[in-house]
């Protein structure tokens, strides 16, 4: 609980500063790892060992024993990926509507807003990775499973357009359960919208790196997540469209071992590389540097 409060208070501060400072690079990011009080424990779902949460956070939310990657919140992801004090959040003020008048949907969104202190399941902004400028977007699977509703789709599109406007490379970390059921056709429409925005980026010859994290499924996999010029994934991340049980029931066959994991789809040629979280920042830096445009 303490850690959540810490994240929440930090989010509030970050939001406050971002509003005032606009485009300027100002200290927004404070690595918070060392402030976490001791005595809180985290259990690894893979090896069942228990570790002090402090150690897990220090280890970038990777199990110190078996290297299982824990789910990371958007804010944690940013703090471990971008240079300190470089992230400037963009795209505020979107309000999630309830276009199909689904019962309880408004309340659900409100609850998630309170729990995560995010407006929606996606944040983006300007950032630097080892001094390489880029636009970075991160999905948060703690907000309604990172599902893509109208606001997430719009913000993803805006982040693409922002990268286009700034002529910067774009990196998106995906983590999503797919399109948001409660918004029906409106969330499905986001797939076409984000994809066509990426087409514009492609025409401009700008780099888009998609990083798939656990889990990336449904409409997100079927749209921008798989449209990266370079597609990376975290070890053992679940990546697929429909869940394995649905597929098994449909085709009435048992599925091969490791089906829909990052390693499996790498073998099948769907992605370019599986990157350990400890190596992610370095890998992204190399890719950005390699593709950096020469200024005339
Ligand atoms: Zn473990």
Number of domains: 1
- Fourth CATH level, the homologous superfamily: 2-enoyl-CoA Hydratase, Chain A, domain 1
H-E order: HEEHHEHEEHEHEHEHHEH
Q: How many angstroms does the end-to-end distance come to?
A: 51 Å
| Category by helix and strand content | alpha/beta
Computed CA radius of gyration, to the nearest angstrom: 19 Å
Strand order of the largest sheet: 3-4-5-6-7-8-9
Give the fraction of residues assigned to helices. Answer: 25-40%
- Which CATH architecture would you pick? Alpha-Beta Complex
Tally of contiguous helical segments: 10
Low-confidence stretches: 16-36
How many distinct beta strands?
9
CATH topology: 2-enoyl-CoA Hydratase, Chain A, domain 1
What fraction of residues sit in β-strands?
A: 15-25%
Largest beta sheet, briefly?
7 strands, mixed
Name of the CATH class: Alpha Beta
- Bound ligands: zinc ion
Query: What is the overall shape?
Result: globular
Overall pLDDT metric: 87
Give a brief outline of the structure.
With 296 residues, this protein is α/β, with parallel strands linked by helices.
């Amino acid at each position: 609980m303490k850690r959540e409060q810490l994240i929440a208070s930090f989010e509030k501060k970050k939001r406050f500063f971002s509003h005032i400072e606009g485009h300027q690079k100002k200290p927004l990011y404070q690595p918070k790892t060392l402030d976490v009080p001791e005595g809180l424990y985290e259990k690894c779902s893979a090896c069942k060992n228990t570790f002090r949460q402090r150690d897990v956070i220090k280890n970038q939310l990777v199990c110190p024993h078996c290297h299982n990657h824990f789910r990371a919140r958007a804010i944690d992801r940013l703090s471990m990926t971008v240079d300190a004090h470089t992230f400037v959040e963009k795209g505020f003020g979107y309000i999630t509507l309830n276009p199909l008048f689904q019962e309880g949907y408004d309340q659900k969104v409100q609850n998630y807003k309170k729990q995560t202190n995010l407006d929606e399941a996606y944040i983006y902004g300007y950032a630097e990775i080892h001094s390489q400028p880029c636009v970075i977007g991160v999905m948060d699977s703690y907000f309604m499973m990172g599902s893509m509703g109208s606001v997430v789709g719009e913000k993803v599109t805006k982040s693409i357009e922002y990268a286009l406007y700034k002529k910067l490379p774009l990196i998106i970390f995906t983590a999503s359960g797919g399109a948001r059921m409660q918004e029906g056709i409106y969330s499905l429409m986001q797939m076409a919208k984000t994809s066509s925005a990426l087409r514009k980026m492609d025409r401009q010859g700008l780099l888009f790196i998609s990083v798939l994290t656990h889990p990336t499924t449904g409409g997100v996999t079927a749209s921008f997540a798989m449209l990266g010029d370079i597609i990376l994934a975290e070890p053992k991340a679940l990546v697929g469209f429909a869940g394995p049980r649905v597929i098994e029931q449909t085709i009435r066959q048992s599925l091969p071992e490791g089906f829909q994991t990052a390693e499996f789809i790498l073998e099948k040629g769907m992605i370019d590389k599986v990157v350990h979280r400890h190596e992610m920042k370095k890998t992204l830096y190399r890719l950005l540097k390699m593709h950096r445009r020469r200024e005339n």
